Amino acid sequence: MQKYYSVCCKCGHVGKGKYIPINYPICAENAKEAAAIARNRGGVKHHHRDAVLSVEEITRKQFYQLHREQDNDLYWKRAKSNICDLAARIEEELEPVGQDECLYKKVAVRVRRQKRAISEREIDLDLVKEYGFKAV
């Protein structure tokens, strides 16, 4: 049976170490599934451990009302003229995200280097098979 949830998530692109809490109307079978659906929505800071701030069950009427509010939200309209209204909603991160970002970048660089090394080895093997010599 489908239930209605309001899932509050951290949304980004408002500055480093800052976020805007946005309530997503989600229709799901349980709260865990609702949180997973909301985490994959656009605008959410996916790589944050605490991207989902809260999940609460709501009525069908509240669900549709939240949908209408989200359609008229300035954050989604990217209204540059009303940037002051958005500034009041911006909140600071409690935990520094620098260490997590640094670790993520290091892992990404290592994976790219490994892929490059594998492709270079494959090219060398192809050259040896085709022409009988190894690339320098």
What does this protein structure show overall?
- This protein is an alpha+beta fold and 136 residues long.
- The protein contains five helices and four strands.
- A hairpin with a 6-residue loop joins β1 and β2.
- 12% of the residues are buried.
In short:
The protein is α+β, with helices and mostly antiparallel strands and 136 residues long.
Please count the helical segments. Answer: 5
Order of helices and strands: EEHEHHHEH
Q: What is the β-strand count?
A: 4
Distance between the termini: 64 Å
Q: What percent of the residues sit in helical stretches (DSSP H or I)?
A: 40-55%
Largest sheet: 4 strands, antiparallel
Shape: elongated
As a percent range, the share of strand residues is 15-25%
Whole-number average pLDDT? 84
Oligomeric assembly: single chain
Derived structural class: alpha+beta
Poorly predicted runs are none
Strand order within the widest sheet?
Answer: 3-1-2-4
